[in-house]
Amino acid sequence: MAELSKTNEAGGVSEAEAVAAIEAPVERGEPILQVRNLQKHFPLTQGILFKKNVGAVKAVDGVSFDLFQGETLGIVGESGCGKSTVAKLLMNLEKATAGEVFYKGQDITRLSGRALKAVRRNIQMVFQDPYTSLNPRMTVGDIIGEPFDIHPEVAPKGDRRRKVQELLDVVGLNPEYINRYPHQFSGGQRQRIGIARGLALNPEIIICDEPVSALDVSVQAQVINLMEKLQDEFNLSYIFIAHDLSIVRHISDRVGVMYLGKMAEIGTDTQIYDHPTHPYTQALLSAVPVPDPEARAHRERIILTGDVPSPANPPSGCRFRTRCWKAQDKCATEVPLLAVPERFVGQDTPAAHESACHFAEEKAVLAV
Ligand SMILES: Nc1ncnc2c1ncn2[C@@H]1O[C@H](COP(=O)(O)OP(=O)(O)OP(=O)(O)O)[C@@H](O)[C@H]1O
Ligand SMILES: [Mg+2]
């Protein structure tokens, strides 16, 4: 693993060195992406002609995590907690207010030129809505082949048609559909087209922002199976953002739970689903509907009181404290760090994973 470089634009590392680091392979299980204290504050302005700053929406406010080569990291959390903003920051589609995103040791928030282009090729995104994310006036061949205009080195002009047909085949679509338009496909097929486009440049990481939320249940399963197959075939690492906790458990090796711009808890799927220690995760899991009446009778439901506070004016200390049944004075004054809670340090138990709560305690709610 390359050294983390904070100086890649300030002269510490030349562009050629940065590109070489970005193109170098990473061993399976090594960190490929390291996110450190990432922040995105959107300014709130007032006035039409003379815009005055009156505050900021703290959409992402100090998020840190690693993504390891070959794994799937799921990110869950309520609507508006900042999941899509994190995705856009990782793609460098939004400029971070503060913090770093290291891709193979290079801070992508500071890269430019050839090095940024190389990163952009290696990190791709699949979006939620297959109906609006594909240009209706372009043929499927042009949509999937569009990334080759920017990166002709991946597929020279004469080879593009063959390459696009190969990609259609890889995602389970008939290569003869190459001249069709998006409206001639079903939702599931369109999402396959989106995935084919994401794969076109042989990326290493694919960030999937709710890739199956707009699809019906049986098609969801097909797309998820396809994504798992492609992960093995092309050695991909995924960040998988979704609302559906059972889908996230199915596909993820590790899961991060976000609340109001911060990471509340992160761990393996077993640690998070069977041994959650953060009250927010426990409440979130307890809200999952259970079909089995026997299991339903024995489970405890945690009902959260109050609304989600505004990210423009989040609570002091722990952000979850205004809705937390365990909150004490300390929670209003001290921001809990995302770390293995002191009481579990050194213990070989599934509860010993990172949780941002002063009073983290294991509570089995329900396995989904
Ligand atoms: N361009 C923007 N300008 C101002 N505020 C924004 C902008 N983009 C997002 N926000 C705000 O940032 C917060 C986080 O938004 P984000 O889209 O990241 O949430 P999310 O977790 O993806 O939600 P969902 O699950 O509904 O997709 C929200 O309060 C949103 O209103
Ligand atoms: Mg979103």
TrEMBL record:
SUPFAM superfamilies, sorted: P-loop containing nucleoside triphosphate hydrolases
PROSITE patterns linked: ABC_TRANSPORTER_1, ABC_TRANSPORTER_2
Keywords: ATP-binding, Nucleotide-binding, Transport
InterPro entries: AAA+_ATPase, ABC_transp_ATP-bind, ABC_transporter-like_ATP-bd, ABC_transporter-like_CS, Oligopep_ABC_C, P-loop_NTPase
UniProt entry tagged with the keyword S-adenosyl-L-methionine: no
One Pfam family it belongs to: ABC_tran
Domain of life where this protein originates: Bacteria
Record has Hydrolase as a keyword: no
Molecular function terms from GO: ATP binding
Residue span(s) of domain ABC transporter: 33-285
Family: Belongs to the ABC transporter superfamily.
PANTHER family per UniProt: D,D-DIPEPTIDE TRANSPORT ATP-BINDING PROTEIN DDPF-RELATED, TRANSPORT ATP-BINDING PROTEIN
Listed name of the protein: ABC transporter ATP-binding protein
